[in-house]
Amino acid sequence: MEDFITYVRNTYIRPGSTFPAALWNVFERGMDQRTNNHIESYHRTLNDAVQVRHPSLWLFIRRLKDRQTLTEERTTMAERGEAPPPRRRKWRDLETQLLRLKGQYNDGNRNIESYWRAVSKEGLNSLVWALVGAAVMELCFGQDSPSRRFSLRG
After folding, report:
1. Can you tell me the distance from the alpha carbon of 90 to that of 140, in angstroms, rounded to the nearest whole number?
2. What's the DSSP call for residue 143?
3. What is the superkingdom listed in this entry's lineage (predicted)?
4. Which of 54, 57, 113, 154 has its Cβ near the most Cβ atoms within 10 Å?
């Protein structure tokens, strides 16, 4: 376990690490991108469109064509200067709540631990990330207050 902790610290946490926080920290990124992995986002939307675990080849091709048509329509809309379709209310509400919590953190009214707990409770992040985040904080910082040793602000 100590080897893993050392690996995480040296690879992601410490200054001069292999993958510095500027690469993976999406805290300061705009709300338009809810993931830092565009391929992951595409796969998620494709999986949602297919709706079965093991689609037939023909269903898969049909859904790929559907996605291509949608992409072409959105590209044409953007080229004409049209506004993108509005987000679902669920996502707008979550975005508003996340921005409020982010503002509280930036203003110093929340420490990192309080921020992560609030984000996970509000459904703004997956439970898995909340658990992983808490575990990584514990592994990397032990009983020390993480808010004094690590910042989401890069």
Report:
1. 34
2. T
3. Eukaryota
4. 113
Q: For residue 124, give the DSSP letter.
A: S
pLDDT in tens, 67-121: 899 889 989 999 999 988 887 888 788 778 888 888 898 898 988 778 877 877 6
Q: Check: CB of residue 27 under 8 Å from CB of residue 154.
A: yes
- pLDDT of res. 128: 43
What integer pLDDT is reported at residue 58 of this predicted model? 93
Q: What is the residue type of 22? A: A
Give, as one character, the DSSP assignment of residue 12: I
Q: Determine the longest span between alpha carbons in the chain, in angstroms.
A: 56
Domain residue extents for the chain: 2-29+86-149, 38-79
* DSSP class per residue in 56-113: -HHHHHHHHHHHHHHHHHHHHHHHTTPPPPPPPHHHHHHHHHHHHHHHHHHTTSS-HH
Q: Which two tokens stand for residue 145?
A: 């207050």
